[in-house]
Amino acid sequence: MEKLHAELHGLGVTTAYELGDGATLPVWIGLVVRYRDGFYRWREGPLKRRHLGTDPAGCALRVARRYKELQADIPSWWEELVRDLRGRPAGDYP
After folding, report:
1. Which of 23, 38, 51, 80 is the most buried (most CB within 10 A)?
2. Which of 2, 1, 19, 10 lies closest to 61, judged by CA?
3. CA-based nearest residue to 4, from 21, 23, 31, 28
């Protein structure tokens, strides 16, 4: 997962973070990659996707592509949730 995380970061996907279990990498709303049985696995709606665990660079390209698609259509409730969780801006800080 560390290699996948590094590859994603290199592709500009900076929202991904490791949970600390060594097998789960949340990337964005509804896009969570898990490593199990030698495969990276994630869901895209009802579809299940997987990619060989020996190819983190290839998996990162696929996940980054999906991430960019999701970024193009951010749900309206997401901005409201972010505002609620962060509170009001303080000075120049968001």
Report:
1. 51
2. 10
3. 23
Q: Is the dihedral of CA 29, 35, 36, 38 positive or negative?
A: positive
Contacts of 58 (CB under 8 A, 6+ apart): 51, 52
- Answer whether 86's CB lies under 8 Å from 94's CB: yes
Return d(Cα 89, Cα 77) in angstroms, integer: 19
Q: Mean per-residue pLDDT for 56-77? A: 90
> What's the pLDDT at 8?
95
pLDDT digits (tens, 9 = 90+) for 14-63: 989 888 898 999 998 888 999 999 999 998 777 899 999 999 999 999 99
* Residue 4 contacts residue 56 (beta carbons within 8 Å): yes
Question: Rounded to whole angstroms, how far apart are CA atoms 41 and 74?
Answer: 23
Nearest of 47, 43, 46 to residue 32 by alpha carbon: 43
